[in-house]
Amino acid sequence: MQKQMKSLIIALTCMTMPVMAQKTDLVNPIIGTNGMGHTFPGACAPFGIVQVSPDTDTIPHNINGVYQPRVYEYCAGYQHKDSSIVGFSHTHFSGTGHSDLGDILLMPFTGKLQINPGTADNPDSGYRSRFSHDTEISRPGYYEVLLVDNQIKVQLTATERTGIHKYTYPTDQKKQLILDLNHGIYNYDGKVLWANLRVENDTLVTGYRITNGWSRVNYTYFAISFSQPIIHYGYIDREKVNYPGGFRRFKTAENFPEIGGRKVVSYFEFKEGNTPLEIKVALSAVGTDGAVKNLQAEVSGKSFDTIHQETNEKWENALSIIDAKGSNDQLAMLYTSLYHTMINPSIYMDVDGKYRGIDHNIHQAEGFTNYTVFSVWDTYRALHPLFNIIKRDVSTDLVKSMLTHYNQSVHHLLPVWSHMGNENWCMIGYHSVSVLADAITKGLPINKQEAIKAMVSSSNIPYYDHTDEYKQLGYVPFDKSSTSASITLENAYEDWTIYHTALLLGDKQIANTYKKRALSYQNVFKPSLGFACPRYKDGSWKENIDLLSTHGQGFIEGNAWNYSFYVPQAPSDLIRLMGGNHCFIKKLDSLFTMHLPDKFFSKTEDVTREGLLGTYVHGNEPSHHIPYLYSWTTEPWKAQYWIREIMNRMYRNNIDGLCGNDDCGQMSAWYIFSAMGFYPVCPGTDQYVIGAPYLSYMKVNLENGKAFTIRADKVNDKNRYIKSVTLNGKPYKKAYITHQDIMNGGELVFQMASSPNKKRLFTEDEKAYSLKN
Amino acid sequence: MQKQMKSLIIALTCMTMPVMAQKTDLVNPIIGTNGMGHTFPGACAPFGIVQVSPDTDTIPHNINGVYQPRVYEYCAGYQHKDSSIVGFSHTHFSGTGHSDLGDILLMPFTGKLQINPGTADNPDSGYRSRFSHDTEISRPGYYEVLLVDNQIKVQLTATERTGIHKYTYPTDQKKQLILDLNHGIYNYDGKVLWANLRVENDTLVTGYRITNGWSRVNYTYFAISFSQPIIHYGYIDREKVNYPGGFRRFKTAENFPEIGGRKVVSYFEFKEGNTPLEIKVALSAVGTDGAVKNLQAEVSGKSFDTIHQETNEKWENALSIIDAKGSNDQLAMLYTSLYHTMINPSIYMDVDGKYRGIDHNIHQAEGFTNYTVFSVWDTYRALHPLFNIIKRDVSTDLVKSMLTHYNQSVHHLLPVWSHMGNENWCMIGYHSVSVLADAITKGLPINKQEAIKAMVSSSNIPYYDHTDEYKQLGYVPFDKSSTSASITLENAYEDWTIYHTALLLGDKQIANTYKKRALSYQNVFKPSLGFACPRYKDGSWKENIDLLSTHGQGFIEGNAWNYSFYVPQAPSDLIRLMGGNHCFIKKLDSLFTMHLPDKFFSKTEDVTREGLLGTYVHGNEPSHHIPYLYSWTTEPWKAQYWIREIMNRMYRNNIDGLCGNDDCGQMSAWYIFSAMGFYPVCPGTDQYVIGAPYLSYMKVNLENGKAFTIRADKVNDKNRYIKSVTLNGKPYKKAYITHQDIMNGGELVFQMASSPNKKRLFTEDEKAYSLKN
Fold first, then answer.
1. Tens-place pLDDT, residues B377-423
2. A391 in the same domain as A302
3. Domain extent at residue B128
4. Is B297 in CB contact (< 8 Å) with chain A?
5. Is B517 contained in some domain?
6. Within a domain: A766
7. Is the torsion defined by CA of A96, A100, A104, A108 positive or negative?
8. A541 close contact with B: CB closer than 8 A
9. Banded model confidence at residue A202, pLDDT cuts 50, 70, 90
């Protein structure tokens, strides 16, 4: 919290902001920047495509003589443990489990020109610099650090499409700058397909690069304006292209205004003096003209401090959707989670509405804002449902962006894992249908007929994840896919969302087809085992399944224990399959309490040891709804116990505070819902299943002007159990509240106690939705 | 001529065209397809961006174990001497001395799939096929050949933006097709930066590729429609990309509708049967959406035969600008020359006006058609002046395209050698200023103020070809450039065009500045030598200059003999510098008659042995005006002799019929002017210097509805000398005619004789323009 206070004081003294506690002061972006969180500490505006942030060690590392990119560790370009900064690039994923981006790196320096980044072991070997975390300030929309080697103070802020740098050099040194178009995250040799650079005049540089990273082909155009004139510049191309045109005739290495190549690193010089150098870097996926437009529209004529203040206000407004009371650490965790939900997806459109589609063509957005970075397998669970409460305009645009993706897709498929005009095909299922279903259920103004058409199409791509066999057999056979059971379980839920949407739209034919498909989970539930189990094409079950292993058992990012609970559309039927209420409770209890040998943990991706409770894996998403399943049993109070355990153990206000990848806000959205005391177990229904409140007071200031307040005056780690509930002053008996309850505004009050109220049980009618056979 | 007759008969019988001799029947596109001509035999529409043509051997060849592209020999993708065809690609330069393009190659086949092209030595090793010239038909807008290996008849035609293929397979064979996105002309390993392919449905495929060839980065998007449904398809990527996204999860090799990579070769299968397969391939530089628009607008719903007929009519109209009488060979040469002038520059714009600029951004053309492929160093001499007579609308758009290039250029420079949104910096000078000057002098409707601004800017780029030193010293010093004398001489002429334009526009300040610069040729004329000679920065001359060598003597694509005559703006002053009339004639005589040892010829680029007369080098451009310089002397009849010699020796109706690169129509435009009997020695003036007519009758059917006729009833190789001239029936005494004389319509009649009329001499007033000191 010392850091927090420091940044708060600086904000108050430097920026002459009103002297009152602000939400932005509570956010600690450094949470999750070490280890598995994969968050970044840099500056961005809410949902901005630019995240300007320090990259610490993204160059390939030598494995047995072969240089390999650090694919996983540097998903966000930054690991807190590192001691040198390579530079400040403009695009970063927030909390993903795959890496890419790191586009358009700037690095200020003085003295001798070095055109390579150097290594972490020997920072002096390149343009990188040592730094100390003591000099780091990380706030929403603001980052600051002192580069120790050259004693350059770096300040960063951002608008939606522009990163703004303010570099304070030692006054007696010529100001110098690296612009490395070869730098990137997941930067294998050859990632940059082409880079281009134009020095338009002495204060404007434009260019672009095309990369083949995780996105197969990514177009990043830029426009960079400088507050002081360039007095000298040059570049090197580390890999001479075969035919560079007539450039041989020029001394292009210095002061030649246009260059192109595969590995272009350029440098710029500015006069010495005590005025800091301010640099504005606007991005576009359309063209350098688009980048210039973005630059002009967003930051032209504005100082660093003005932009910083405006972006701070954007964040303050965005974070003010929720008021809360709690300890400093609790509020830091809550508002940092809220902050992390508003980074990805990101606006992928120029100020004039032009954007690059999944067909790589340039389109004009009509009546919506186009977004990219859809980590849907993660985010359909809680992030999109959260947006349907707190960010309904954004959520509408997200759905429209998904429908646009569908319309431009040669597969006629909604996004699976897409970013920057590419489908990355990461993870399984067609979970965008859940996002659309939830949007329709919760009344977003989207074209319902277009939506159901896209949902039906996306669930019928024969070559995608063995959908053909899934439709034919009722399950994906293990002969065909090593993750067949996971796919079957997830498809079944997704098919339920289509069924439910068809019901809402009155389309019985689609409803009938998809109701049947929604029951497919039954086809991979092995009664004799009491668990989900992969099955071969001939109907036989995989023998000797290892229930704890996450590898080779028919599942992905989870084991049979985790995935067997993945029937969010029909918990009551799942309880039946697992042997009834008693057996089900036993099994849930075991899940949270069993001993998981380290050998299995070491094979569980994406999570820290702290991300485990028994074999409940919170660092990966398939389990996220599981604690809430107690609400369908006779022991709902156990949910109240475990949810608080998860929140206390797996979300902490420090660099290692996330127990697994934040996954573009899904981990954070889970936290926010769970803090409020309810969770969307089955997106597509209008129900939020009650767990237990985490804080004594939370208020959601809805965009419709109403407010929904959650009170739990005496809640604490001891008083974690619900004694009783009232909604708007009336006793509330159900296991869930509805979307309308929230949107109407009102007050949900929990009486808490240190021991469970074992009489607070739910009739079938009081339980949340469960599909019947 | 046998081939001509055959094609004529086919045209008449198959296409039910009206039975009358047509201009298109006279064109023999095979002229120049062997050796140095660098023309291609395939099909294109006038000024179309698509030239669909067979490529014969453009794969790299092994030089000491290193595979190198055949940069020079395969500029047009085709050498007549070759015996196998690799396939049919859609973009080709016409007659250049540098290679690139060869985009989007199709090759039909039957039987076993082979995904590599194979080698010329062993055609069976790949998808290429043997062929015989006996089965080849090459006409404007039409090409036909039988692929011997698979007995597939190939017919090609084209619109401006679309190549159309008609493949007749053996009826019992499954129709198969290679689409090789890795093929190209100048196809070094790594030329393709990225390729993308989408099978939109069973009759439409779209995609693009980005290449780094001669143009540093070239974007070629395409849309391909098939007349029959694809029943099976697949691809291989010869170089797996490092991270292909989740494509690992799919069997993408077959029937997967979207692929991307660096070396993508795809194949398609269609049912067997006796209906030929018709394929339409539309190109765009904007996007696949642009390509689809082009496809729909130009060829949708039209059969191969219909399109062929329409394109034939376009050529017939285009070629009908000139009527002529002559021998079959003479007419073949004339109309093939006219045909060759209407290929490059090419339309570089989608049907909706969108195009890719030199800044690589997408622009909307307002009120003009955007063109590309500007080989300006060649074409400013005669091609653009010819267009100013016969294709004024096109010429206006060419100038507007050049001005657009200037406006988008980071250098603020008009095109030097540009194609497909790139500046290739090939050759020297800033010759677009001549094109603009000629356009203004000849009254094209362009913005004169914008033009002079672009001209002044282009002639003041300090880092371009040592313009800074040229301005300072009055010449480019040999210390700085190995071609310094050539640059100085050419800059001086270009500066004259700016001077002359400024005079026309009444801008005395610019005129004064550029008049001085226009005399810079004097600074590299060494009086004691009697020749132009490179000079060092300190004013001293290069010693021991080798007047015959084209290398290392301060010149480019020419020697001191050639370049010393390069003062088109001031022939009278050149005569003075060379010692007066008598000495000048002697020097000209020597030029045409001297013995040039083979050692020099072997170092003379771009020309065949037949392209030399003495050391007059017609295969390269710097000499093109030289024979006309006799008109400033007391022996103008010698021009009449040598011009006919050049035409007879260096333009022949056969595969080797061009003595050097056609250079995008410059060689052909020289021929057309010279055949009419006059030539624009100094573009920018309104004067055409009279040489001698080649044919007994030529008539230019001007776009303004008037006609300009040239008659020389008795002209032949013997009667090559002018006895007298009348214009519109009145005796004509001048050494030149004016642009207005032509545009007014009228009749220029030459009385010819077998011996010179040595009394036909010109007073100073009757001679064409010559800048005075």
1. 999 999 999 999 999 999 999 999 999 999 999 999 999 999 999 99
2. no
3. 29-318
4. no
5. no
6. yes
7. positive
8. no
9. very high
* CB-CB under 8 Å, B287 with A360: yes
Domain end (from A256, A289, A318): A318
Rounded to whole angstroms, the Cα distance separating A724 from A736 reads 13
- B243 and A186: CB-CB below 8 Å? yes
Tell me the pTM. Answer: 0.95
Put the strands of the sheet holding B721-727 in their side by side order: B322-325, B697-701, B707-711, B746-753, B721-727, B730-731
Q: Is A121 on the interface with B (CB under 8 A)?
A: no
pLDDT at A600: 78
- Provide the domain count of chain B: 3
CA-CA distance, A300 to A203, in Å (whole number)? 13
The answer, for B374 touching chain A at a CB cutoff of 8 Å, is no
Are A304 and A377 in the same domain? no
What confidence score (pLDDT) does residue B15 get? Answer: 45
For A743-772, what is the mean pLDDT? 97
Q: Is residue B220, in this structure, part of any structural domain at all?
A: yes
Q: Residues B270, B277: contact at Cβ < 8 Å? A: yes
Residue A10's pLDDT band, with cuts at 50, 70 and 90, is: very low
Task: Give me the residues of A, 171-230, that contact B with CB < 8 A.
Answer: 186, 188, 190-191, 193-194, 196, 198-200, 206, 208, 210, 212-217
Chain A residue at shortest CA distance from B248 = A425
Domain stop point among A452, A482, A497:
A452
Q: Are strands B162-168 and B152-158 parallel, antiparallel or unpaired?
A: antiparallel
Q: How far is residue B25 CA from its own chain's centroid?
A: 22
Tell whether B282 and B372 lie within a shared domain: no
B251 touches chain A (CB under 8 A): yes
Specify the DSSP element, H or E, that contains A270. strand A264-270
**Residue at token pair 């055959």:** B6
Cβ contact B194–A213 (<8 Å): no
Could you tell me the CATH number of the domain that includes residue A419?
1.20.1050.60
CATH number at residue B224: 2.70.98.10
Of the candidates B245, B423, B465, which has its C-beta nearest A425's C-beta?
Answer: B245
User: Closest-CA residue in chain B for A218?
Assistant: B194
Q: Which of A360, A375, A417 to mutate to test the interface with B (most CBs of B within 10 A)?
A: A360
**DSSP, res B658:** B
pLDDT tens, position by position, B586-614: 999 999 999 888 887 766 666 777 778 99
| pLDDT tier for residue A250 given thresholds of 50, 70 and 90 | low
